[in-house]
Amino acid sequence: MITFFLVLLQSGNEYNGGAVVAMVGKDCVAIASDKRFGLELLTLATDFEKIFKMNDKCYIGLAGLATDVQTLSEELKLKCDLYKLREEREITPKKFAHLVSSTLYDHRWGPYFCEPCIAGLDENNKPFICSTDLIGCINFAKDFVVCGTTARELYGICESFWEPDLGPEELFEVISQSLLNAFDRDSKSGWGAVVHIITPEKIITRHLKTRQD
C-alpha cells in the first residue's frame, strides 16, 4: 500500500513536467521557470504559467500536476489577500512559507501534486528563499532551491554556477544559464523560460527563447 502511494505521488508530480528554481543574490532574489505544458512527452502549450505573484516582494513557483498548480495558486492568493485585509499589511515571504506549509499539510491525505519554491524580500529587504515537499515540510536555503522533474539536473548546475553576493544582472545571468542548461537535459520541461528578479526598488521580468524540440 505504501509503495503504491509513493508511485502515485511520483507519477502525479511528473505527469506534466516542469522546472522551477529560486536563487539568492546581494539584496535581491530571482525565481525562474520553464513554460512547457505537456502530457508526459507530448507538448500541448508553451505559455503555461508556473510562477505567481503574491505581492510586490513575494513570488511562488509551482511545479507538478497542472490542475493542482492552478488550484493551489488561486487558494494561496486568496489567503494572502485575506491576510492583507485582516492585518492591514502585506505578508512577508517567511510567513507566506508557513502559510503554504500549513495549507499543504491540511491536504496531506489527498495532497496537491505540486512542489512550491518561494522567493522574496523580507521587511528589511533581505533575500528569502525556501521550498517544500507535497505535504508542507519546509526546506530553507541560503543559496538556491529547485523543484520539478528537472530538480536533479538543476542541483548540479546551480552548485557550479552560483556565487555569493551576485548583483541583479549577474543573478539573472546565473539563474538563466542554470535553468537553460538543466532543462536541455530533461524531455519533460523547457520550450521557453521566464525569469523574475526582485529588488527593493523594482521587479524585473524577462522571457527567454529556447530550443523548441
TrEMBL record:
The keyword Nucleus applies. Gene3D superfamilies: Glutamine Phosphoribosylpyrophosphate, subunit 1, domain 1. Pfam families: Proteasome (PF00227). One of its GO terms (molecular function) is endopeptidase activator activity. GO terms for biological process: proteasomal ubiquitin-independent protein catabolic process; proteasome-mediated ubiquitin-dependent protein catabolic process. InterPro entries: Ntn_hydrolases_N, Proteasome_beta_3, Proteasome_bsu_CS, Proteasome_sua/b, Proteasome_suB-type. GO terms for cellular component: cytoplasm; nucleus; proteasome core complex, beta-subunit complex. It is found in: Cytoplasm; Nucleus. Keywords: Cytoplasm, Nucleus, Proteasome. The keyword Isomerase does not apply. It comes from the Eukaryota. Component of the proteasome, a multicatalytic proteinase complex which is characterized by its ability to cleave peptides with Arg, Phe, Tyr, Leu, and Glu adjacent to the leaving group at neutral or slightly basic pH. The proteasome has an ATP-dependent proteolytic activity. Component of the proteasome complex. Belongs to the peptidase T1B family. This is Proteasome subunit beta. The lineage of its organism: Eukaryota, Fungi, Fungi incertae sedis, Chytridiomycota, Chytridiomycota incertae sedis.
